[in-house]
Amino acid sequence: MPDAAPEIIEFETPRLRLRRWRDADREPFAALNADPVVMEYFPSTLDRDASYAMIDRFEAAFAERGWSNWATEVLATGEFIGFVGLSIPRLAFSFAPCVEIGWRLARAHWGKGYATEGARGALRAGFERVGLEEILSWTSVVNRRSRAVMERIGMHDTHEDFEHPGIAAGHPLRPHVLYRARCEEWRRANL
Length: 191
Description:
The chain is of the alpha+beta class. The chain has one domain (about 10-190): Aminopeptidase (3-Layer(aba) Sandwich). It is built from five helices and nine strands; from the N terminus they run ββααβββαβαβββα. It has helices at about 25-35, 50-65, 115-130, 145-150, 185-190, and strands spanning about 10, 15-20, 70-75, 80-85, 100-105, 135-140, 155, 160-165, 175-180. The strands form two sheets. The protein has a five-stranded antiparallel sheet with strand order 1-2-3-4-5, with helices on both faces. Strands 6, 7, 8 and 9 form a four-stranded antiparallel sheet that branches.
């Protein structure tokens, strides 16, 4: 008997809907990934094919596990603004295996608290619905905006900085910080 398909996790926060991906998300996601300001803390922007391949990987993870990086839209308008979600990294990190929380929003939607709101919802889903014991996040040492989101959602700097294996040696974005949230601590803070 084949394994049953996993329950697909989707949810809403006060202002956002985090859901599976649709074909209509492909072009705005490609535009977001082509924006050099959005991609400032990545080694390069992504072309349309790479963006589409990311969506395909996210959807494959939904089919396999029931969760992934959720397409994120504004509840009031239905406008796609990017993604917030959970993933299992493909690169071999010294702290793997692990689950990472991450986000990437179109620049027009920065400064509205959407990344923080969506990430809080993703942490809740990870701990309460997926049953994770720990969720990690990392970014370039110089990415103050993402580090601030990590801190606002209750993650803690592990002080275990590392060199990102997917970024060339000597590249200014290679030094990374590692943040952690543990379920037990999260539950105590969110009773």
